[in-house]
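quick one if you have a minute, typing this from the bus. theres a chain ive been looking at and ive put its sequence and its fold in token form underneath. please have a look and point out which stretches look like helix strand or loop to you. anything you notice is useful, everything is just below.

***
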Amino acid sequence: MDARFDIVIVGAGMAGASLAARLADHARVLVIEAEERPGYHATGRSAAFWTESYGGPRVKPLTTASGPELQRLGVLTPRGALTIGRTGQERDIAAFAETYSAVGIDVSILEAPEIAARIPDLRPEWTCGVLEPSTCDIDVAALHQHYLVEARKAGVALWSRAGLAAAERGPQGWSLTLADGRRLGCDVLVNAAGAWADTVASRAGARPLGIAPYRRTIAQVAIEPAAPDTLPLVLDVAGQFYFKPENGRLWLSPHDETPSAPCDAAAEEIDVALAVDRFEQVVDRPVRRVEHRWAGLRSFAPDRLPVYGFDPADPAFFWFAGQGGFGIQTAPAAAELGAGLLLGRAWGEVDPAPFAPDRFGR
């Protein structure tokens, strides 16, 4: 056996890196990553925003609790979000505002002239909207790098090109075999494998929870005139698109959720075309060219809440997965919560009960 650790974390994306940084002073930790570099999949393909309504009211406590740490780290830039609807969708807009106001988010309903003032060349049928001024852009790369650096400084080991091939649980703990043949041991195995979470569970003999990956597409486009830097994050109340400015260009998504096997996801031409078409139905500014396109896999448990905690059938297997599209914006609070659960300490301000793996039954 090549080495032994207290905790081995499978996955070096935002989830695994943030958790490792939080655990580093309390345990001997190794992070294993199947790819050549950390953050290659979902973390490196994020739409890069922090908005308290994203993920729904049940995710909101994690997002809100993460805000102060993200501000302290200097990775947030004010943007604002505007969720809009067509004429006839006023009730949907009112319901959106009521839902999120009830959980303490600062939202306000805007009239058509106020919306048009914030979205240049908005087509006239888009007449209702909700402003969420607290929304920010996130420097995802800087945040991820911060956690990796903090973990490394505190002694966490990171092995890249080190996919988990097999895991066996014995009287002395876990015996792990990596794809390159290396073997190691640990006391606790943490599943932070994103789209591969159920695969890792199966390899460790744990029951998969039904954490399913879905493809989400983003295209960077040039529009004429160029996208103003003051444009908010614009979302459709019906969940058909979102877009935001990025250095004079526009990042836009058709808000797709296409079931996928765990893989190196790539944008499909049909989804890019759909994103462009939906944008041009909102704003009278033609897309001149698509400059870049990508896709990432957002992984959801059946109830669309993250899964944090020890497996009910194995107190040495820990779930830290199912973080959907909100894993970046909730990273500080999730890492605090996860580390507290792993170490048996009451850390953080978020109740872990809604995210426990045993909520799915056995």
Summary: The CA atoms of residues 162 and 265 lie 20 Å apart. The first strand starts at residue 3 and ends at 10.
